[in-house]
Amino acid sequence: MSDEREKVELEEESLLAALSSQNMDEFREIFLEQHPYDQAKLFVKLEEEDRITVYKYLSPEEMAAVFENIKDDDDQYEMYLSEMDPTFAAHMLGEMYADDAVDVLNELDKDQVASYLTIMDDEAAEEIRELLHYEEYTAGSIMTTEYISIHANQTLHSAMQILKNEAPNAETIYYIYVIDEDKKLAGVISLRDLIINEPDTMISEVMNERVYTVSVAEDQEEVARKMKDYNFLALPVIDFRGHLLGIITVDDIVDVIDEEASDDYSKLAAISDVDSNDRGPFTAAKKRLPWLIILLFLGMFTASLIGRFEETLDKVAILAIFIPLIAGMAGNTGTQALAVAVRRIAVGDAEEQSTFRMILREAGTGLITGTICGIVVTLVVFVWQGDIFLGILVGISILATLTVATIAGAFIPLIMHRLKVDPAVASGPFITTINDILSILIYFGMATLFMKYLI
């Protein structure tokens, strides 16, 4: 691993030296030998002056391969394109796979998009226009129209000729889709089938008519789940009449999974975008403040609840010592249950029966953990304070709050899922604050009821 890293570092140094000395031939020789992902990694590290030099050294087609592998913030695309000559940028976008070009153009203003499409090659522009009108985060928005299709009344020999001719421009060649005269999807044939069968065999004899498809309006998370479940390399996208519109490849799904995971993690952490490489603290603060303000008011509500039990605290001041313990335990167990619930929803296991079983299981888990923790804390408080009634009060409060918090942590995201709200919005801080409120109510409610045993 260290040898590979040293090699990469040496290549980067050589490339930077070639840029500095304006040695185009040396730069191209080293740069074009690298994988496009490594090219993109180097590109995003460059200063603007060096990037402008790179645009001069590479063709639009070579630059397209770099752009397809950039994993930087989406808002950086506009900056990179603004540095390029508009004609160069338009031709580069036209050389990219259509779905990747759409991802870039979706980050730009409509006027900029229209300008690039006008300059671009007509055929490439038309492909991109077809994809741009699909709603974001749907199958249509991530599909590509660069696939290979054939007809059922052809022989494998003629299909192989089509494959050879169209393969350079296709995003994948492992599946070849069979369509009828109306461009409706009729079947699929794999590259293996083309190779192992006799050349004069008809496509209709070897094609698989049972094709798993996704609707053009289907959510990208559902598409990712289906591709994961069936281990497909690509999935065809159809409209409501069964016309083949495009395909979604596994590399696009990897990006979707990464994007959705980052989005869910951001919401669980109450951050608008955990992957954002913010340029400064003001940008980061602007993105985090909305959730923090909401949590601030919830926290103030929690404080006001404690104030309502001021009389109880005045009589038994030692109760205040255990507030952080009970609230913290409730928040922790609620977050654990939340993680289980969100994960179950994410993998599509949120049917009514499995949901009921999960809530029962979490309730049982909360009861068991609450009982054990309650017994432990009762003994500790008794040994520490010498007051068995105080120990029992704290122990029962722990039992009740852990049980309720576990159920709440599992139930809230499920309710949100039923209401068609992203369950990840029930973030860790949100669940923690809600459980703080519940734990305070339980703890001081029980203390007030059993006050005579504590005084």
UniProtKB/TrEMBL annotation:
<dbReference type="Pfam" id="PF03448">
    <property type="entry name" value="MgtE_N"/>
</dbReference>
<keyword id="KW-0812">Transmembrane</keyword>
<keyword id="KW-1003">Cell membrane</keyword>
<dbReference type="InterPro" id="IPR046342">
    <property type="entry name" value="CBS_dom_sf"/>
</dbReference>
<dbReference type="InterPro" id="IPR006667">
    <property type="entry name" value="SLC41_membr_dom"/>
</dbReference>
<dbReference type="Pfam" id="PF00571">
    <property type="entry name" value="CBS"/>
</dbReference>
<feature type="transmembrane region" description="Helical">
    <location>
        <begin position="318"/>
        <end position="342"/>
    </location>
</feature>
<keyword id="KW-1133">Transmembrane helix</keyword>
<feature type="transmembrane region" description="Helical">
    <location>
        <begin position="390"/>
        <end position="416"/>
    </location>
</feature>
<comment type="subunit">
    <text>Homodimer.</text>
</comment>
<dbReference type="InterPro" id="IPR006668">
    <property type="entry name" value="Mg_transptr_MgtE_intracell_dom"/>
</dbReference>
<keyword id="KW-0460">Magnesium</keyword>
<feature type="transmembrane region" description="Helical">
    <location>
        <begin position="363"/>
        <end position="384"/>
    </location>
</feature>
<comment type="similarity">
    <text>Belongs to the SLC41A transporter family.</text>
</comment>
<feature type="transmembrane region" description="Helical">
    <location>
        <begin position="289"/>
        <end position="306"/>
    </location>
</feature>
<dbReference type="InterPro" id="IPR000644">
    <property type="entry name" value="CBS_dom"/>
</dbReference>
<dbReference type="Pfam" id="PF01769">
    <property type="entry name" value="MgtE"/>
</dbReference>
<feature type="domain" description="CBS">
    <location>
        <begin position="207"/>
        <end position="265"/>
    </location>
</feature>
<comment type="function">
    <text>Acts as a magnesium transporter.</text>
</comment>
<keyword id="KW-0472">Membrane</keyword>
<dbReference type="InterPro" id="IPR038076">
    <property type="entry name" value="MgtE_N_sf"/>
</dbReference>
<keyword id="KW-0813">Transport</keyword>
<protein>
    <recommendedName>
        <fullName>Magnesium transporter MgtE</fullName>
    </recommendedName>
</protein>
<dbReference type="InterPro" id="IPR006669">
    <property type="entry name" value="MgtE_transporter"/>
</dbReference>
<dbReference type="InterPro" id="IPR036739">
    <property type="entry name" value="SLC41_membr_dom_sf"/>
</dbReference>
<feature type="domain" description="CBS">
    <location>
        <begin position="143"/>
        <end position="205"/>
    </location>
</feature>
<keyword id="KW-0479">Metal-binding</keyword>
<keyword id="KW-0129">CBS domain</keyword>
